[in-house]
Amino acid sequence: MTWRQAPNLAWHWFDGAAYVVSLADTTIVVLDGWSGRIWELLASGADQPAIVATLLDESDGLPDQVGSDVAVLLAGLEQHGLVEHSGGGVRNVASTVHEE
Amino acid sequence: MGAQATADVRDARVRLAHGYLQLLANELRVDILHVKGPAIDPLIQGVAERTSFDADILVRPRHVERFTTALNERGWQRFLGFEEGSAFGHAMNLRDEHLGLVDVHRSWPGFEVDPATAFDTLWQSRGAVSIAHVDCAVPDLDAQCLILLSHAARSGSERANDIAACWTRAADDQRARIDALAARLDARLALAAATGHLDDFRDDPKYPLWRYFADGRHGRLAEWSARWRAARSVRDKLHVARAFLVVNPDLLQIEVGGRPTVHEWTHAYRRRMSVAWQDLALMARHRRRR
Fold it and tell me: Is A73 helix (H, G, I), strand (E, B) or coil?
C-alpha cells in the first residue's frame, strides 16, 4: 500500500526524532525510533514495501515481523491523522516482503 | 536538560509554530510574512543561527482580525493586546500551551507609511523559505535587513550583531538598496537610529522616542515623556494619556494569575494613580529645573 504524509502538517527533525504538529491539533507528536525512521522514509517518497525493505536492511528483524510492525505503526500514524493513503492496491506487506 | 538542549527544543518549537501559522494562513487565505528567527536568510551572517523565543509574523493589516480570531478559536490565548504591548502598539502576543508564544504584528515599528502600504511593499518582493517543511512567505533580503535594523534600533546595544550583519558588513550597493527601501517605507528615522545617524533627524517629532530606545535608557518617566512628545495628533496624545492612566487588563491578569477580582482592579487603579501622580510631579520638577 502507498502512504504519504497527511496535508496540513508542520514537522521538524531534531535529535533523532520527528516533531510533528497538525493544523487540527497543536499537540506535538514525537516520532522516534522506528516511527521516526518510517516518517523519514515516507518523506523521501518510499512506499510500504520499500520501508519494510529498508528497515530489514537496517535491523536484525525477520521479514514477517518487520512487515507486521510497519503495518501497525502506519495504522497508528493514520489514526493520529499524520498519514493517509495515496492510492495503490492494498497488499499484504509481510508476504510481499517474504516473496521478495 | 542543558542550556544548549533547552535552546534546541525551543528552536524546534518556534519552527513548528511558524509552520503552523503558515498552514492556518493558507487555510484562511490570509497573507502573512515570517520575520526574524528561522525566517532570516542564512546570508545574513551571525543572525540566522541565533535561537528565537517566539515566532514573529507580519500580517496584512486587513487580515489581522480574521487571523487572530481564528487563533483564539483554536485555543490560542491572548497574552498582550496590540495597545498594551509596546509604545508602538504594533503586535499582539498569543500563547499556545504546546507551541508557545507568537507575535502577530499588524505594523512594523519605524515604518511610518501606512501599514497596508508597508505590507504591500514587502509582499511584492517576497520570497519563500521552508520552515518545519512548510513553505513560508518571507520578505526579501534587503527588507529583512531593514526589519532587523529597525528592531535593533529599539533594542539599545543588545542587537549589535544584527547591525553588523545588516549594515556595517554590508556591501555599498546593499546599503544603498536598504536606504532606498527605507525611503519608500518612510523608515529613514529608524534606520538612522540603528546606524548612528539619529541626530540628523533631531527635528522629527518621533526623534525623542527613538533617542530613548537608541540610548537604551530605562525608566517610566523617560519613556512616557518620549511617547508624549512623539504623539503628533490630539488623538495620539489622548491615546498616550489613556495608556499612562489606565490599568492594562492583560498585564494585570498575568500579575494576579487569572481573571482579576474587583478588589484587585481597585488596588491596581489606586497603585496606578499613585505612580502616575509621582511621575507627573517628577516631570514638573524636571521642567522647573530646566
Answer: helix
In the three-class reduction of DSSP (H, G, I as helix; E, B as strand; rest coil), residue A97 is classed as helix
Residue of B nearest to A14 (CA): B12
C-alpha atoms less than 13 angstroms from C-alpha of B84 in its C-beta half-sphere = 17
Give chain B as a DSSP string: --HHHHHHHHHHHHHHHHHHHHHHHHHHT--EEEESGGGS-TTSTTTTTSPPSSEEEEE-GGGHHHHHHHHHHTTPEEEE-HHHH-TT--EEEEEETTTEEEEEESS-TT--S-HHHHHHHHHHT-EEEEETTEEEEE--HHHHHHHHHHHHHTSTTTTHHHHIIIIITS-HHHHHHHHHHHHHTT-HHHHHHHHT-GGGGTTSTTHHHHHHHHTT---HHHHHHHHHHH--SHHHHHHHHHHHHS--HHHHHHHHTSSPPHHHHHHHHHHHHHHHHHHHHHHHHHHHH-
* Full-model pTM: 0.82
| Residue B44 contacts residue B141 (beta carbons within 8 Å) | yes
Could you report the per-residue pLDDT of B78-120, keeping only the tens digit for each? 888 777 666 677 889 999 999 999 999 999 999 999 999 999 9
Q: Which of B101, B104, B106, B99 is nearest to B132 (CA)?
A: B99
Contact (CB<8Å) B75/A26: yes
Q: Which residue has the cell 487565505?
A: B29
Assess contact for A19 and A28: CB atoms under 8 A: yes
> Residue B261, Cα to own-chain centre: how many angstroms?
30
Strand order in the sheet with A17-22: A9-14, A17-22, A25-31
Nearest CB to B8 within list A15, A21, A28: A15
Least confident of A39-43, B239-243, B260-264: B239-243
Q: Between A and B, how many residue pairs show a Cβ–Cβ distance under 8 A?
A: 55
Tell me: the pLDDT tens digits for A45-70?
A: 999 999 999 999 998 888 889 999 99
Query: Searching chain A, which residue's CA lies closest to the CA of residue B95?
Result: A26
